[in-house]
Write a structure and sequence with these properties.
single chain; 139 residues; little secondary structure
Length: 139
């Protein structure tokens, strides 16, 4: 569900709050996403649950990655109900002040970066990497 990845690429120009901040392009996002998915699909660090009626799983969204298996969003898979609870953290997760990132960027607006190859996904779905319909899944 990542809409963009930003990095500090150079020194800032006075008065331009986005100067020196780079949004990753498709190739960079695709490589990271595929590498990360391959890591999470390794059987030695993943868990695939065989669902039975009445099962409940609770995960820590800050420290555990999760993904729906292929077919999870189809009617034949049965009803899938998700409840989300957000707990107060132990501290702020804001970027380090020395990076000079703006604390807010409006994701409902067009990409604010000058690079035409920058990935900037408005709205909910986020960046889809690689051939997402044939991704590997843990066994």
């Amino acid at each position: 569900m990542t809409g963009s990845i930003l990095e500090r690429a150079a020194d800032t120009e006075p008065g331009d709050k986005l100067s020196g901040i780079k949004a990753w392009n498709h190739e960079e996002m695709d490589k990271l996403s595929q590498d990360f998915t391959a890591l999470l699909d390794r059987p030695d660090i993943s868990f695939a649950h065989s669902w039975e009626e009445g099962d409940v799983i609770v995960i820590d969204n800050l420290a555990v990655a999760h993904k729906a298996m292929p077919g999870a969003h189809q009617t034949s898979s049965g009803l899938r109900i998700l409840h989300r609870t957000t707990c107060a953290g132990l501290g702020p997760l804001d970027p380090a002040a020395h990076l000079g990132f703006p604390m807010r960027l409006g994701t409902s607006k067009p990409c604010p970066f000058k690079d035409h190859d920058a990935i900037w996904v408005n709205g909910y779905v986020g960046f889809r990497w690689g051939d997402y319909k044939t991704r590997s899944v843990p066994h």
